Backbone:
C-alpha cells in the first residue's frame, strides 16, 4: 500500500534526521516526494534536508515547489519562513564570496 510505504519512509527519514544524517534523510524524502507527487509536506521536507546540508539554492527550489502544490495552505507561513531563511543564507554566502 502506498500510504503505508510513505508512513514507513517518514519514520526512517525522521530517524536519519534525528541522528544528523541529512543526506540519508534527503534520499528518503526524495523517494517519498516521487511516491506522493501532490504532497506539499514531502517537497518541504526535501527542501529542509537541502537546507540542513547547506544547499540553499536546492532548498529554495524544493520549497517553491511545495508552495505551488495543493494542500500547502495549511503550512504556508512555515514554508515561506523557511524559504526566506534560505534566501538570507544564500545572500550571506554571496556577500562573503563563498559562491
Residues:
Amino acid at each position: 500500500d502506498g500510504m503505508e510505504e510513505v508512513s514507513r519512509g517518514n519514520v526512517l527519514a525522521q530517524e536519519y534526521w534525528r541522528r544528523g544524517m541529512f543526506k540519508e534523510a534527503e534520499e528518503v524524502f526524495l523517494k517519498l516526494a516521487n511516491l506522493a507527487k501532490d504532497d506539499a509536506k514531502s517537497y518541504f521536507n526535501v527542501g529542509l534536508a537541502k537546507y540542513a546540508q547547506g544547499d540553499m539554492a536546492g532548498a529554495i527550489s524544493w520549497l517553491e515547489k511545495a508552495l505551488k502544490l495543493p494542500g500547502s495552505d495549511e503550512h504556508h507561513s512555515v514554508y515561506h519562513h523557511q524559504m526566506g531563511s534560505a534566501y538570507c543564507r544564500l545572500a550571506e554566502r554571496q556577500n562573503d564570496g563563498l559562491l
User: Anything to note?
Assistant: The radius of gyration is 14 Å. The chain has five helices and no strands.
